[in-house]
Amino acid sequence: MMNADISAPQPADPERALALAYAPSSRRPALAALWALDEQLGAIVARTENPAVGQMRLTWWHDALQSLGTAAPVDPVLVALADASAIEPTSLLPLIDGWEALLDPLPLPEDSLATYAAARGGTLFGVAAKLLGGAPDAAERAGRLWALVDLAFRISDRTTAERALALASAYAMPERLPKALAVLTALAGRDLRRGLDLPRRQGSPRRVARAMLAGLTGR
Predict the structure, then answer these.
(1) Cα dihedral 18, 66, 104, 193 sign
(2) 218 in helix, strand or coil?
(3) Which of 78, 94, 67, 100 is nearest to 34 (CA)?
(4) Which InterPro entries match (predicted)?
């Protein structure tokens, strides 16, 4: 049974928090835990100056996910995932590989970006789609696009950002997704079309309106 305690981890990203509102209420705790895990892994990579140290920290999470069914969780995110019986913890292990790909020296080559997109975005959206009753294949493709665009607007290295957007442009926008995923995909598509020279303004009226339209229509 899922624990709907309001103290359960919630996504820090305001757009993921908005997207969460378009998920069925019974699935929100599990989806919030999934996104909180992704943010936790991303924070490790963002804080890492020594790749070996970052890899050790990611390995801890790999081992913790692998043993989640047999050992008592010690982190709030792991507790929430343990409560989310609809998510198989081992299905999340590729997320570790995705974030680990970003520990390579900058600028990141295309093969590292492709690994990152598939392992982070594909896994995250694929697992979420199964949770929300959507088609995993379409969601995985959307997840790759979303992950590449998300990276492009967060990373300081311009060459890597440009490569990420170029790879993202190869993925067609799906016709329909579970509404929570459609919100994120629609915003990523908007950012992709606008390009790096126009900053993302989270919370701007037009951006929120686009998110709400996707949340209502699923595209």
Answers:
(1) negative
(2) coil
(3) 78
(4) Isoprenoid_synthase_dom_sf (IPR008949), Squ/phyt_synthse (IPR002060)
Angle at CA of residue 209, ends 196 and 30, nearest 5°: 90
Please report whether residue 145 resides in a domain: yes
Q: Is residue 15 part of a domain?
A: no
In the predicted model, is pLDDT for residue 29 greater than 60? yes
34, 36, 35, 56: which is closest to 45 by C-alpha? Answer: 56
List, for residues 65-112, the tens digit of each pLDDT value: 999 978 788 899 999 999 988 899 999 999 999 999 999 999 999 999
Structure tokens given for 157: 């290295």
CA distances to 120, 157, 179 from 113, in Å: 10, 13, 26
Locate 149 and state its tokens.
Answer: 């665009």
Listed as own residue / partner, the contacts of 197-202 with beta carbons closer than 8 Å and 24 or more positions apart are: 200/153, 202/14, 202/15
Query: What value does the mean pLDDT take over residues 140-152?
Result: 97
Domain that holds residue 85: 20-175
The reply to whether 187 falls in a domain is no
204 domain residue, yes or no: no
Query: How many structural domains compose the chain?
Result: 1
